[in-house]
């Protein structure tokens, strides 16, 4: 999943607020809606964007839909982004690739 989708999802104040609410625990769509003055289609759109970015998941239970965070997705995305912009990222990636090639060659030689 592209990092761009995550940052696009985080660009909206409303979506960041939804994530903050979900940080306290899972909520039903109705419980989320109570906290905002959105129309149902607008709320559905925000939830869809967060879900497509992999930041939340949904689970249908009976007639209710519950949402919860996928915290490791956000943490991994932020780390990956920081590694990309970090000045030492290039040398570290080259080192990792070189080590992987060496390991593969050793394994093939055995």
From TrEMBL:
Keywords: DNA-binding, Transcription, Transcription regulation. The keyword Oxidoreductase does not apply. SUPFAM superfamilies: Winged helix' DNA-binding domain. CDD domains: HTH_ARSR. This is Metalloregulator ArsR/SmtB family transcription factor. Residues 1-89 form the HTH arsR-type domain. Pfam families: HTH_5.
